Amino acid sequence: MPDSNEMLEELNPEQRRAVTAGDGPLLVLAGAGSGKTRVLTTRIAHLIRERGVPPRRILAFTFTNKAAREMRSRVERLLGGVAADCWLGTFHATGVRILRREAARLGWDRDFAIYDTDDTEALLRELLGSRTLPRHLSPAEARQRLSAWKNERVTPERARALAGDPIERVVADLFADYEQALRRNNAFDFDDLIARPVDLFEAEPEALRPYSERFLHVLVDEFQDTNAIQMVFIEQLSGHHGNLLVVGDDDQSIYGWRGARIRNILEFEKRFPATNVVRLEENYRSTAPILEAANQLIAHNRGRMGKNLWTARQGGERIRAAMSADEEEEALRVARLAQEWVEKGGSRNDIAVLYRTNAQSRALEDALRRHNIPYQIVGGTRFYERREVRDVLAYLKVVQNPADSVALLRTLNVPRRGIGDTTVGRLQAAAAARGWSLSEAVEHCQEIEDMGRPAARRLAEFARFLAQLRGLAAGATCAGVVQAVIETTDYLAYLRQTDEATFETRRENVEELVSAARAFAEESDDASLRAFLEEIALLTDIDGMRQDIEVVTLMTLHSAKGLEFPVIAITGIEEGLLPHASSLQSQVDVEEERRLFYVGLTRARDHLYLFTASNRRRYGDYEPMMQSRFLAELPESCLEAETVRAPSWRSYAEGDPDTYWRQQGQGAQVPRRGVRDEDGTRESAATYEDDFSQEHVALAVGMRVRHEKYGVGRVERLEGHGDMMKVTVHFERHDAKKFVARYAKLLPVR
DNA sequence: CGCTCGCCGTTTTTT
DNA sequence: ACGGCGAGCG
């Protein structure tokens, strides 16, 4: 363990100033790679050791559990075991911790459930089912709207007044019902985990006092991503002693779509006039070219606090940029680069491949798999979102919290036990009419008049089954209950019977759930089912990331925030993807996309690779893509373009899209030739071209052609030239279809 | 009640 | 390309 002086000597003067600052509000503007985690952990250690603050009187917020764990272990390295007493966790985990203590005060039972996005949407589906809607309203849309309101502290009454269009009015009407339903189900949604404590603290100041008096110091990481309600939460908890340290970087604010308010950081000094400000601008992570590129890029944003990162590091190679014809070739290049890195003695752990949307991972996965390069995906379809896993979890939830109608509905007929929609409808109607919960309706099924004999018998059997399961669960650990559910429902037999083809994978997932429960029961000091369910509910994507295995990591740019790798590859740097199409309507949103790219660039320590493709599959069809405007914003001196001359970006920057397009088309053809594997077999991109290229098939209007899937048809229309040529074919057995000619796999028919 | 087929929306990011 | 879901049939 280092002594205090050693601890401080390792810091630069600005970092030291932040660590040793006195009481009161403190704003640390910490650029990427400037050592903010070190500042936070050393500050906590300093408070405890030098200032005599008891660990239990320190509260620190992070955005992910992973960040919390890392912070805890680093404080422990500085101080030893006392760090365990700090309150250190995500906003949501801290909210839960408070809710467990205060649930009764709010009218919830201590065994409350936490609803994730899927649960919430299932509940909304239940509620929407009984309403007539003006137009199509999806549960997802309703959830987003409600979530936005809750995060802005808008009440159901206020929502009614605010609602503009008819859809919004329907959702506003639904709001109060939804809140009641959560209460009936003894559940909180994600937003509630913060909103309910905040509301409670506001309504009953004496409920807040034990907390605000307890926490002598409150610290917040990633402050630029806090939203309105989190800001209130922070103010409530730090209000009594006023010792609030926030660390953030306005240039890395990427959660505006989730209600994050960048003005929390921009206006912090206005809100707390006595604020001490520390700026950390020395970067300890990246090479000079990477940093220079990042600086130039972000300079295009307005409304920044402004800072210039610098590094003492000398040298460093240029950023490499490569353009591919399509996403397959792009993925192939990524696989190659990983392979070469490993051949040169590098570790796969050094490499992260980043993208804007989860859907982009597919082509990358295929290429990595073909090259036998092990990889892990952070996020995407998460383990706990898989159908088979959720089925088992639903049983666990019902056992834990009988009031949970969402979980109960899921279990009623899985595995099939002859309880169909009609029966469920009658149950719901009876529950509504008599003020029962759904599980009470199941238990009283004999008393429901219009319930048929066979249905009532099956329901009674199901109720007995649940009771038996609860009895079994009473003395067991979470692992025991998981095991019991799988065995007593004969769930694996059900899986095999529903879909033979996917059975193996699904069985493995179920078994992984068993292992997860076992591991939790062994490692956690509370092995209860409740603790396990809570852990799962609060897990984040990034928490599942492993560093103990030798793999390349694939993830979204959002997930990459806060991480660093020696080698970073960013793929799909194209208009419509980055910046994403949904952001193009507003300047503000494009700036957030630029920050997202900035976050990506600044993850790299030594090597940075940028990839674009001129065609990309979207919704199954190839679409031509343009290089991102952001590429043109990087200084040429930092770049080395492999397949395309930098001037094509320049021409785009100068607003000459036609030139740009022509160059793109040409650039894209060059690298496709001679793309081969080590053993000489051709990669799919090349094979594809040789077998199906339209270069040798001179398409003409009126020509008869055959398509692999759609059969025979007639060419109706040709648009564009070369790579970009599109062909419309009217098929005999289908409607007209439009293809990028190059990829259409059309063969002439005589 | 359960199964199959075809249509529809989906891909923005996540606690 | 793919999964979810409603309609229609056995």
Descriptive overview:
The protein has 750 residues and is α/β, with parallel strands linked by helices. It contains 32 helices and 22 strands. The protein has a seven-stranded parallel sheet. Strand 18 (704-707) and strand 19 (711-719) form a beta hairpin. Helix 6 (117-129) crosses helix 9. 44% of the residues are buried. Residues 644-697 have low confidence and may be disordered. The structure holds a DNA duplex (15 and 10 nucleotides).
Helices, strands, pairings?
Elements lengths: L3 H6 L3 H8 L5 E5 L5 H14 L8 E5 L2 H15 L7 E4 H16 L6 E3 L1 H13 L9 H13 L4 H7 L3 H19 L2 E3 L2 H12 L1 H10 L2 E4 L7 H11 L5 E5 L14 H4 L1 H4 L4 E5 L7 H11 L20 E6 L2 H17 L7 E5 L5 H10 L4 E3 L9 H14 L4 H8 L8 H14 L3 H6 L9 H22 L3 H11 L2 H8 L4 H21 L5 H10 L13 E5 H4 L4 E6 L16 H15 L2 E10 L1 E4 L2 E4 L4 H4 L6 E3 L5 H7 L3 H13 L14 H9 L11 E4 L3 E9 L6 E6 L4 E5 L5 E3 L2
Parallel strand pairs: 1-7, 1-8, 2-3, 2-6, 4-5, 6-7, 9-14, 9-17, 10-12, 10-13, 11-12, 13-14
Antiparallel strand pairs: 15-16, 18-19, 18-22, 19-20, 20-21
The structure holds a DNA duplex (15 and 10 nucleotides).
Side-by-side strand order of the widest sheet = 11-12-10-13-14-9-17
What is the approximate shape?
globular
Tell me the total number of β-strands: 22
Proportion of residues in helical segments = 40-55%
Distance separating the two termini: 82 Å
Radius of gyration: 29 Å
**Helix- and strand-based class?**
alpha/beta
In short:
This protein is α/β, with parallel strands linked by helices and 750 residues long. The protein contains 32 helices and 22 strands. The protein binds a DNA duplex (15 and 10 nucleotides) through residues 63-64, 90-92, 116-117, 138, 190-191, 193-194, 254-255, 257-258, 356-360, 362, 379, 413, 416, 418-423, 538, 540-541, 556-559, 577, 580-583, 592-593, 596, 617-621.
